[in-house]
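4.2 Preliminary Data

To establish feasibility before requesting continued support, the project team ran the inverse folding procedure on a target of 97 residues. The structure was first converted into the token representation described in Section 3, and no sequence information of any kind was made available to the design step. The complete token record follows.
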């Protein structure tokens, strides 16, 4: 699980995509430019493949404000998705190459 009190990656995300994995669930946080301004996009998908090699229909997305609060909300969402979809993440770990 992500400890949102130690998850200080906003300045990194403003410049680069941040990707990691959590026990079968891969995720990426990145800056997304929209008509309303910059947003934080969180994307999750199952292992074993990287973002570029995973089919689009297997990816789930959510947007947040590009702020420290938005990063905390994204961390909460990632933790919720990890818990709610644990069966998917467990299955994906078994499919590693």
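Position-by-position output of the design step:
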């Amino acid at each position: 699980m992500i400890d949102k009190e130690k998850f200080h990656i906003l300045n990194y995300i403003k410049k680069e995509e941040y990707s990691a994995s959590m026990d079968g669930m891969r995720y990426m946080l990145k800056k997304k430019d929209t008509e309303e301004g910059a947003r934080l996009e969180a994307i999750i998908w199952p292992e074993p493949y990287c973002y570029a090699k995973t089919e689009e229909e297997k990816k789930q997305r959510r947007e947040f404000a590009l702020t420290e609060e938005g990063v905390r909300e994204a961390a909460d969402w990632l933790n919720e998705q990890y818990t709610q979809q644990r069966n998917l993440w467990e299955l994906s770990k078994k499919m590693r190459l």
